[in-house]
Amino acid sequence: MRRRFAITRLKRDRHPHKLRRQLRAATKTIEWLNDENQSLWFLLNEMRESEIEKHGDLLREEIQDVIDKTQILVQTKTGEA
Predict the structure, then answer these.
(1) Which of 27, 38, 70, 81 is least enclosed, having the fewest CB within 10 Å?
(2) Residue 18 CB: number of other CB atoms within 10 A?
(3) Is pLDDT above 60 for 10?
């Protein structure tokens, strides 16, 4: 979603309702930015967790390979003795 941000100067004038309107708009923009920020951090955390899970599977496979090779070596040595 693309959003334009209008930068306006807050002026003291005889129209306080304009100032209130500008403050409401600024508050909505800040709330929107905070929401987007939270969404992005959530997305980054999800990406990190998926990367960890992907590497976790790889590490489990490697560990299982080492265990299998060790069992074969133990059986071979035991059979020769």
Answers:
(1) 81
(2) 13
(3) no
Distance CA(10)–CA(20), nearest Å, equals 10
Whole-angstrom Cα distance, residue 50 to residue 55?
A: 9
Written as one letter, the residue type at 73 is: L
Amino acid at 48: R
Q: What is the pLDDT of residue 36?
A: 93
AA identity, residue 72: I
The owner of tokens 């599977």 is 57
Nearest to 22 by CA among 34, 10, 31: 10
Is the CB of residue 29 less than 8 Å from the CB of residue 5?
yes
Compute the residue count for the chain.
81
